[in-house]
Amino acid sequence: MYRTKFCPGKLLILMTILSLLSFILKKEQHVLNPTSNSSTKRTEQEMFERENPYFPYEAFKMKRFVRNCNHFPTFHTISFDNSYWQVANLKSTTIYIFSAHFDNRTYPTIRVLAETVGRINQLTTKCYLWFSINRAPVITDIKLTYLYGKPSFYTKKHSLYTFPVVISCLIPKRDNIPISISIAESNCSRISNNIKIYSANSNEKSGVSVCLKGLQYNSDMSKQLTEWIEINKELGIAKMTFYIYNIHPKTKQLLEKYTESGSIDMLPITIPGRVPNTYFMRKELFDATVRAWVHEIVPINDCYFRNMNIYQYVLVIDIDELIVPKKHRTLTEMINSISNSFTSLSFSEVYFWSNNTKCIEGTSCDLYYFQRTLRSPKYFLDTRASGHYKSLHNTDKVVWVGHHYEGGCVSKCERRYVSTDIAHNQHYRETCELEIQSECNNKYRNGSYDERLLWRYMDSVIIKVAKMLEYL
Ligand SMILES: *[C@@H]1O[C@H](CO)[C@@H](O)[C@H](O)[C@H]1NC(C)=O
Ligand SMILES: *[C@@H]1O[C@H](CO)[C@@H](O)[C@H](O)[C@H]1NC(C)=O
Ligand SMILES: *[C@@H]1O[C@H](CO)[C@@H](O)[C@H](O)[C@H]1NC(C)=O
Ligand SMILES: *[C@@H]1O[C@H](CO)[C@@H](O)[C@H](O)[C@H]1NC(C)=O
Ligand SMILES: *[C@@H]1O[C@H](CO)[C@@H](O)[C@H](O)[C@H]1NC(C)=O
């Protein structure tokens, strides 16, 4: 038998070198952000803005001189609500403000997204546009749009129910964009909010971006989400924006990886007002109030405004949906084939039964969308007014968006319903939506279809999903 001579001296040296090496490596890991590399080390500002993307960090770090009654609010005069919202406490009501966007599609305008408890008095509520922290603000009138229902005159000041609004403020003749905006009642009233103005520009708009509502999942959704993201990339989606209430740490790690690669944006969100914002409590609240979906309007419009200057189209869907073209490989090819002019394209949903799953031979049997091929035979051709459609919007023409359709257009809205021969919305559900539950078995579960439209993308997606999951 072959044996090396035992030599303690050499061993000691070797061990020292090894431990030194591991020390250096560990130290290296410690210094670098695990999801970043040395050339992308984050500054404090970047980290702050990742934590709260809606707050005007830079402006707050500047030296201030002006101290008149309309001075730029200091940090301790701001009234925050559930981390990301800021409060405007008006005589008439309370407004929770989320974000503000520069919109130059008609006139230079700031669009402020908020939720209000009661009716906002349009005559006494003003926009304070801050062009400099050391100059008095430009004070303008507001134009108010209720995005989803209108509070009654009797709504209490501290109700749990809130109503999403967009407060629009025209910028008076000026070349520059304000740095931030406050909403307050009258001149020289105490200003308790200060929102960063988001403004992104691209020389040439193109492509399709997806907007989603807030995610809240306690369990790890990495596998299903990776598959959903990769399928959408195959469909030609250039960017997906996720708002995060609560997700599993592993899912977060995955979404951070996708954020770095530029395929997605990830933004934090809570619900405003005197409500809980922890996982189970918020779920309870959403189950207890049938108005849970009201809180989806602000994030999908925040996403819409963020993307309107960069992408030509914005599609509003959830992760249990996929818009799949039938005659084209990508959505962009499908859109280009539609010759009529349109402001929005709307797609009929068709149920894909989510509890009916079959393993596909030659795969790992844990795919989500590909393994669910059994669908309802019925489309929703006759119920256009109801919520069975999802839409894609031309960002030049649609001002703001709802869950299913456009909310308003720059001029006339021209919505087109896309034929189900061209594309449909695969909606993955166990059973029918509540309002058609009574006719579910007779109409929507009468017979079934094995639809494998998605399998065109399977080989490519499986490889990408596996590669992505390796990082976790
Ligand atoms: C580091 O980050 C830069 C900038 O995002 C990127 O171009 C480069 O490929 C990254 N390098 C590694 C080794 O990940
Ligand atoms: C807004 O649009 C007008 C007209 O197209 C243009 O002249 C102006 O420069 C734009 N403003 C900004 C800040 O981009
Ligand atoms: C607001 O009040 C200040 C100080 O009293 C005054 O100088 C300014 O003109 C007022 N602005 C408006 C728009 O009323
Ligand atoms: C799926 O769920 C629905 C309703 O919950 C039920 O009627 C159906 O039998 C289930 N199908 C399977 C295959 O479990
Ligand atoms: C179910 O489908 C069959 C075959 O398409 C049809 O004959 C029957 O009338 C349908 N039942 C109901 C209740 O619609």
From TrEMBL:
Superkingdom per UniProt: Eukaryota
Designated name of the protein: Glycosyltransferase family 92 protein
Enzyme nomenclature, EC number: 2.4.1.-
Pfam families on file: Glyco_transf_92
Signal peptide: 1-22
GO molecular function, one term: glycosyltransferase activity
Family: Belongs to the glycosyltransferase 92 family.
InterPro entries referenced in this protein's UniProt entry, alphabetically: Glyco_transf_92
Localization terms from the record: Membrane
Keywords: Glycosyltransferase, Membrane, Signal, Transferase, Transmembrane, Transmembrane helix
This protein's record includes keyword Ribonucleoprotein: no
Lipid bilayer topology: Single-pass membrane protein
Keyword Glycosyltransferase included in the entry's annotation: yes
Principal localisation: membrane
GO cellular component, one term: membrane
